[in-house]
Specification:
The complex is a heterodimer of chains A (about 600) and B (about 350).
Chain A lengths: L9 H6 L1 H5 L6 H9 L3 H12 L2 H7 L4 H4 L2 H4 L6 H11 L18 E5 L3 H10 L5 E5 L8 H4 L8 H12 L4 E3 L7 H6 L4 E4 L5 E2 L13 E3 H9 L9 E5 L3 H12 L4 E5 L11 H9 L3 E3 L2 E9 L2 E14 L5 E13 L2 E4 L3 E2 L33 E3 L2 H4 L4 H20 L10 E6 L1 E3 L2 E2 L35 H8 L7 E5 L9 H5 L5 E4 L4 H7 L11 E3 L9 E5 L8 H4 L6 E9 L3 H18 L1
Parallel strand pairs in A: 1-2, 1-4, 2-3, 4-15, 6-13, 7-8, 7-13, 8-9
Antiparallel strand pairs in A: 5-14, 10-11, 11-12, 16-23, 17-18, 19-23, 20-22, 21-22
Helix pairs in contact in A: 3-4, 3-8, 4-8, 5-8, 9-17, 13-14, 14-15, 17-22
Chain B lengths: L37 H15 L7 E5 L3 H4 L9 E4 L5 H11 L4 E7 H5 L3 H9 L4 E7 L2 E2 L5 E2 L22 H7 L4 E6 L3 H13 L3 E7 L15 H7 E3 L1 E6 L14 E5 L5 E6 L9 H13 L3 E8 L6 H5 L11 H4 L3 H10 L2
Parallel strand pairs in B: 1-2, 1-3, 3-4, 4-8, 7-8, 9-13
Antiparallel strand pairs in B: 5-6, 7-13, 10-12, 11-12
Classes of the chains: A alpha/beta (about 600), B alpha/beta (about 350).
Chain lengths: ~600, ~350
């Protein structure tokens, strides 16, 4: 194999699994270290730089970082990254004087943002400090979008939302509540320099089976959650069926319990391995004694005397192959389950009845707008989409990243420069060596298991709709949990010209991730590894030929715990532990870059 | 942070041996030797060899003397018996241990100072009496613990770190052991585990004295240019005479060997070693020819490695002395010490 190039941005970024998996590339190991040092405000601000809403996301993020976490491969459970983010948010001091501010002198550009959800708010957050005027149109009387009305208050208290939305709006955003946009044409005619659409995926999917329209006790999940959030609905029947097993279904079943339901069943068509809901949301629901029923496919609503009395389901049986795929499906029976109410939580769609179809904004056959995945520009210049409205339902952290990227595009569009000529990501490395046995990070492997977040007592939590269930980590728990982080950003950097092939690193490595072997094909190298190659997604490092024998140093990144022992036992410092920092460019960096470009000319003048 | 120990992580890629143990169960404490020391690689090879042989750690006795090498038993097989003896006197203590319990696997770890200077006499007699043990010399040509003076194995013309040149001829443990009737004589290099691990396995299984002289560079005092025991020099002049595979008793010999090219040798416990010659003119069972071969290559500046001589026909110490087949530790006290009356009766026979 050729020597692995590590000088670009990708290799070392990918080693930091959590940061690579996070759509917004939050610098997780660094903020965990800041928490370990008790620097909660610094940890909060580092988070805010990339994910904008640390307090909100510390409670309800879909946390793609955690399944990616290296700790989950070394042991069973990943680091509780998401809940540590909440620790930073909960324990921070007043950080208002550290927030970005909008300049007095505006740049004369006006941007219209449709919908006051996480995507639009991120765009405003990124563009306000550059001098843009941002106008947010929101149909409801309150900002927050899906975060406000789709996530129940017992998971995300309104005060947390208000505070973090306030940080953005208080920069001087023109937030127009109760102002729906009925016509894109009118908005375009209003003379804005650019338009951003962040209206989410507000339309819950319906289930067209017999009896659907014959009862008022059949609800569409997200609309029902919205009515509950705004106090229009405050009770439900004793026996409730939830159709669907996504995260919205989990919110619906737990909300039902708080509105008086005694017996809640979540009905799934497929076995558990096919559920869309995150494991932790399923666990939270099951802790509250929600019954999750598998292999039941809805057939019809049973209406007697105009009243919903139950639902019939077909009992399903599936053949599943070794790779976990369904190869065959059979109906093996039928059953009727009595109920008073049904909540449908089987997905959401975008809805753009207000965008006229003759404006040059194209939609595909599913009525989803055609959007560039890099620039977030629609087929009409100057009109951008982000969040769920761009590519269908995802989650908050994706919407935030869309917002960052759209903000860059909007800035470039307003400046008249190319949207695709964007600043690249960068990685900087700095040695962490402090002495013979000293590193500037906590390198010891702590075998402690994952801490559990304490919850409000099961008898207490149902008393009111808005009692936040999770209490957050205690100080003791946080101190323990931070030490579980393996510091993946402390990179093992190898200098082949210094290696004397003494095997010290190979002998000391606690997870056998190093090998010195004759070079060969990728297959040969994978076979020659000291520990078997288990994860295709993980990178293989192959060095330049070594001086004494011409063999190569090979590192399988999969299980490296970044303990630094290879570097510590290396007599020639051929291995070094270096702290990597991934630089993610934002709109403000693009602006600073523009200014830097102009400077030589100014000097010449 | 401060000095940390190698963390014990049982990961998915870790295999288990016939006893259900992982290689980590054969490790010991954290090494306090210099980073990059050849001895740490020998330690890793010993760990791997015992792991692969499915030997329970508590059935091993680790014996050592004094020196950097003799510290290493603290870094492997922490669940074994051990004795860290007086300088150069490990062979006597090992003889005592072997006499008392012939079922233990005896592993001696010594250095060029411990075996070839202060303990040379002890070493010679252990070879002569064919004590059943694996005896590893971690040979680096210098006294590392006392800051790098030449040892008895330093080659003529080798330069010390401060510039002094050695003029006294070296004592070669391999040639010495052959001359003294050694029944298993091997040489290897700490930087070549592919060769070293099977050699140690065969040495453990050999019934009798098995010497493995391991060139094990001292990174601190003897790894510079003009040293003849550095990593670079050893790699340059390393000469493999024979290639050895170790085959456990139950396993078939799988690899296909050409007639005449490979030679399987049965060991006492039913396991086999399969030797493949790298050099045409080498005979691993001809003592005189082997010594000639080693000397001829020595004159060319080459270091001959591999299993250099083996004789499975000679009795070990227990055989020579016709001792009891039951370990003395397992005999009832009354049989070990029949009492004053029995002694008197015995003495009466000689009057």
């Amino acid at each position: 194999m050729d020597p692995t190039p590590t000088s670009g941005t990708e290799y070392f970024h990918r080693v930091v699994d959590c940061q690579w998996a996070c759509p917004a590339h939050t610098d997780v190991p660094e903020y965990i270290r800041l928490i370990a040092q008790g620097r909660f405000s610094d940890a909060y601000m580092l988070n805010r730089g990339s994910n904008v809403f640390p307090g909100i996301l510390g409670r309800v993020c879909d946390r793609p970082c955690e399944p990616a976490c290296r700790r989950g491969r070394v042991e069973d459970k990943p680091v509780a990254i998401c809940r540590l983010k909440r620790v930073a948010a909960d324990n921070r001091d007043d950080i208002t004087d550290r927030l970005p501010v909008a300049p007095e002198q505006k740049n004369g550009k006006r941007i219209a943002l449709v919908g006051a959800g996480c995507a639009s708010l991120t765009v405003a957050n990124d563009l306000m400090p550059l001098g843009y005027e941002c106008v947010i149109y929101e149909a409801l009387d309150v900002a927050g979008g899906l975060m406000r009305y789709n996530i129940p208050a017992f998971r995300l208290p309104p005060e947390v939302l208000d505070e973090e939305i306030g940080y953005i709006v208080d920069m001087g955003v023109d937030l127009r509540l109760g102002t729906p946009v009925d016509s894109m044409r009118e908005l375009l005619d209003a003379g804005y320099d650019a338009v951003f659409v962040g209206t989410g995926a507000p339309k819950g999917k319906n289930l067209h089976i017999p009896g659907r329209d014959d009862s008022e006790n059949i609800h569409i999940g997200i609309s029902w959650l919205e009515s509950v959030a705004f106090g229009h609905i405050d009770k439900i029947g004793e026996n409730v069926l939830i159709i669907g097993v996504g995260n919205t279904a989990m919110d619906c079943c737990r909300t039902s319990l708080r509105l008086g339901a005694k017996n809640v069943k979540v009905m799934a068509r497929k076995p558990r391995d096919f559920f869309k809901a995150s494991d932790w949301e399923l666990e939270d629901a099951e802790e509250e004694a929600v019954d999750i029923v598998v292999n039941h496919s809805p057939k019809e609503f049973v209406i007697e005397d105009g009243k919903l009395v139950g639902m019939t389901f077909e009992l399903m049986e599936y053949d599943i192959d070794d790779r976990g795929r369904i190869t065959d499906t059979r109906i093996v029976g039928e059953t009727m389950i009595p109920c008073d109410d049904v909540v449908l939580a089987i997905g959401q769609d975008n809805a753009f009845p207000w965008v006229e179809r003759d404006l040059g904004i194209e939609f595909d056959k599913w009525e989803v707008p055609v959007v560039d995945p890099v620039t977030f520009e629609s087929t009409r210049e100057g009109v951008y989409f982000g969040g769920d409205s761009a590519f269908g339902p995802k989650n908050i952290i994706w919407a935030v990243e869309h917002g960052h990227q759209a903000a860059i595009s909007i800035h470039k569009y307003c400046e008249g420069s190319s949207l695709t000529d964007r600043l690249p990501r960068g990685v900087t490395l700095q040695s962490a060596k402090m002495g013979i046995h000293e590193w500037s990070y906590s390198n010891n492997f702590d075998p402690v298991s994952r801490r559990l977040v304490p919850n409000v007592d099961l008898r207490e939590r149902f008393k009111k709709l808005d009692i936040e269930v999770e209490l957050g980590f205690s100080a003791e728990q946080a101190v323990t949990e931070v030490e579980r982080c393996l510091n993946c950003d402390l990179q093992t950097v190898f200098f082949a010209n210094l290696c004397i092939e003494c095997d010290a690193c190979i002998d000391i490595c606690p997870v056998d991730c190093l090998t010195i072997e004759e070079n060969g094909t990728e297959e040969e190298i994978k076979r020659s590894l000291k520990a078997p190659f288990l994860e295709d997604e993980q990178q293989l490092y192959v060095s330049e030929p070594l001086k004494q024998t011409g063999r190569v140093m090979i590192k399988d990144e999969n299980l490296c715990v970044h303990c630094g022992l290879c570097a510590e036992r290396c007599p020639t410092s051929a291995w070094d532990m270096q702290k990597s920092t991934v630089a993610i460019p934002y709109a403000i960096d693009e602006m600073n870059q523009d200014e830097a470009r102009c400077q030589p000319e100014r000097k010449a003048g | 942070m401060t000095y940390i120990a190698k963390p014990k992580i049982v990961h998915g890629g870790l295999s288990r041996n016939g006893l259900g143990l992982t290689v980590r169960d054969y490790e010991g404490g954290m090494s306090t030797l210099c980073a990059g020391c050849g001895h740490d690689s020998v330690t890793a090879a010993i760990v791997q060899a015992f792991f692969e042989l499915d030997i329970p750690p508590h059935r091993v006795a680790k014996m050592s003397g004094i020196g950097c090498s003799s510290k290493t038993p603290a870094y492997f097989l922490s669940a074994s018996h051990g004795f860290n003896s007086v300088h150069g006197r490990m062979p006597s203590v090992a003889t005592g241990a072997a006499a008392a319990n012939r079922e233990l696997h005896l592993l001696g770890v010594s250095g060029d100072g411990d075996s070839l200077s202060i303990g040379l006499g002890q070493f010679c007699h252990a070879v002569r009496r064919n004590l059943d043990m694996c005896y590893i010399i971690e040979n680096n040509g210098v006294y590392g613990l006392t800051k790098g003076q030449f040892s008895a194995s330093a080659d003529v013309g080798s330069k010390a770190k401060k510039g002094e040149i050695n003029q006294q001829p070296p004592i070669d443990a391999v040639q010495l052991a052959m001359a003294l009737g050694g029944t298993f004589v091997a040489r290897s290099f700490s930087g070549d585990k592919a060769q070293l691990i099977p050699l140690i396995k065969a040495a453990i299984k050999h019934e009798g004295f098995a010497l493995v002289d391991v060139l094990s560079p001292c990174v601190t005092f003897n790894d510079h240019e003009d040293s003849t025991k550095s990593y670079a020099y050893t790699r340059q002049f390393f000469h493999r005479a024979v290639h050895l595979d170790y085959v456990p008793p139950a396993d078939e010999i799988k690899a296909a060997y050409d007639e005449g090219e490979a030679m399987p040798i049965q060991l006492h416990d039913g396991s086999r070693i399969v030797l493949r010659k790298v050099s045409e003119d080498y005979n691993v069972q001809n003592r005189g020819a082997a010594i000639d071969y080693i000397r001829a290559h020595q004159r060319k500046g080459e270091i001959v490695t591999g299993l250099l001589y083996i004789d499975e026909g000679e009795p070990d110490m227990h055989g020579l002395n016709r001792t009891n087949s039951t370990p003395l530790t397992e005999l009832p006290y009354e049989r070990l010490c029949p009492g004053a009356d029995a002694l008197t009766a015995l003495q009466q026979r000689f009057r």
